[in-house]
Specification:
Layout lengths: L5 E2 L8 H20 L8 H19 L8 E2 L2 H19 L2 H6 L1 H26 L10 H10 L6 H5 L7 H27 L7 H36 L6 H21 L4 H14 L7 H29 L3 H9 L1 H32 L10 H10 L5 H16 L1
Antiparallel strand pairs: 1-2
Helix pairs in contact: 1-2, 1-12, 2-12, 3-10, 3-11, 3-12, 3-16, 5-6, 5-8, 5-14, 6-8, 6-16, 8-9, 8-11, 9-10, 9-11, 10-11, 10-12
Amino acid sequence: MNFGLRMVSEPDQAPIHSITLFVALLCACILIGHLLEKHRWINESITALAIGLCTGTLILLTTQGRSSHILLFDEQLFFIYLLPPIIFNAGFQVKKKQFFRNFMTIMLFGAVGTLISFIIISLGTAQLFKKLDIGFLDTVDYLGLGAIFSATDSVCTLQVLDQEETPLLYSLVFGEGVVNDATSVVLFNAILRFDLSHITSSSAIHLLGNFFYLFGASTALGIAVGLISAYIIKKLYFGRHSTDREVALMILMAYLSYIMAELFNLSGILTVFFCGILMSHYTWHNVSESSRVTTKHAFATMSFISEIFIFLYVGMDALDIEKWKIVSKSPGKSIGVSSILLGLVLVGRAASIFPLSFISNLTKKSQSDKIGFKQQIVIWWAGLMRGAVSMALAYNQVNLRRDL
């Protein structure tokens, strides 16, 4: 498997042409997004999708339908370079009081809810796809589909929620989104580790045990790295000599937590998220004032660029001619597959949010802490969108099938 991005260019063209154009498009996304920021329903993510679609259309026309991409996506690029700053900044900027106040509810939605959705989608596709005569899928593929389509993307929903006006709703949607992504990735990796051609009760228990091990070990590693970074910076106090060293150490320690998790085959998402929470609570208060301002904006900037990069590529990828060729060969079957998946996502989401909200409300004494029906609808709707994590897992699944 090639690592990173592959250039879509002729043999005699320099790869720098593709990179230059893509960076120019990133700048255009930021500029146009800034000009449209007064519109509440339009943000940089939507702008990047639209620009990606327009760019993909132009490339299709200029290449006479051969391609819609400037660069070809590799899921390793996403997981190693683009995802860490997004998740770390989510943990670093999270309102810890609200997050931990609703921690059990967030874990119910993000972990247990994802498992419920995973089971419904996996079993549903296994039963319904057979009626469409899709014969090339096996057990691992059905379980992989369950993990892929259980990964939600709540970024767009958060753009229209005010953290100050609706702190409970914002905390639940945000927290569930992060834990859900981590659960989906952990679940997907756990599936790939086992031979599931013959599922028995012992293998199912082993799979579940491996899932909880990955979840707990990843969280513990993130907490450990966060505490170590706080201890090192407090004892050595780099700020007396160099703000640059403080900022560099914080950035590198954050990335180290993610890479260590990947090295030990754990969940980098969970690790770097909890590392971000620990570093914002302990490490950040041990650095100089200038370092605090710098790190806060540095992490936010890296996360922002990564998100724009992903949405821009998704816009171009929607016009991928190879995918549309497959659809055109059997449009009826493609519509049937899409309809089944959409229906299962709707059902799986409802089966997780509404019952779990009822259980969560039973444990709440204060009425203000309970999740109202309208709030449940918003949380249900927020989890219907699928984003970058689903796309990266899907690419991973496709590449695995090619390697077999």
